[in-house]
Design a protein that fits this description.
The chain is 61% helix and 4% strand. By secondary structure, the protein is mainly α. Among the domains are: 78 residues, Four Helix Bundle (Hemerythrin (Met), subunit A) (Up-down Bundle); 51 residues, no CATH class. A two-stranded antiparallel sheet has the order 1-2. The radius of gyration is 38 Å and the shape is elongated.
Length: 223
Amino acid sequence: MDVKIAFFYLLSAVMLFAAFRVVTARNPVHAVLFLMLTFSQAAGIWLLLKAEFLAITLVLVYLGAVMVLFLFVVMMLDIHIDNLRQGFWRHFPLALGIGGLISLEMAVVLFRGFKLGDAPATAEVMAGAAEQAVQYSNTKELGMLLYSQYLYPVEIAAVILLVAMITAIALTLRGRKDSKKIDPSKQVHVRARDRVAVLKVAPTQAHVPVETEVSQPVQGDKS
């Protein structure tokens, strides 16, 4: 067994363990951390398969953006684990049936095998009579394939994602009733006499004069 196969078994074992802990972890923060470990091991397997672009994309998109966002959301929300675990055994037969169906479909696909096409030359090509080394780039070939043969599916996917983003913003962007914002145009056109109004109010009770008390001389005071 060479080093490549040993690394494949090591990354696969760690990835399977981390994926199992994602499902069985009681703390949602720990589950998110195990999911990040799963994605990192999957990126390592992509590197072993010489798919550098997919590995870097998996690290940048999922580990660098999506999973960090999930981690912040889980830590900011006050999630009650006891409430989430209510009704677990009631929905367990349905979850078991769906899991068994997915496992059966994956087994059928794996046993039938995959049809692989002819791989392009990766190391050396013959140019005339001389042998010339050519550096093969997965990223370049993938980009040429996406923007040539699969151009319309890529554009449709981009439009769908744009519509989903605009829809999410439109659904969440609502006017708050408790907001105390001020319209600058209305604030500029306000006049001084419109701000304060002095009203004359008639008195409700008659004015009663206050009698001043005259100090009486104290007996025995000769002054």
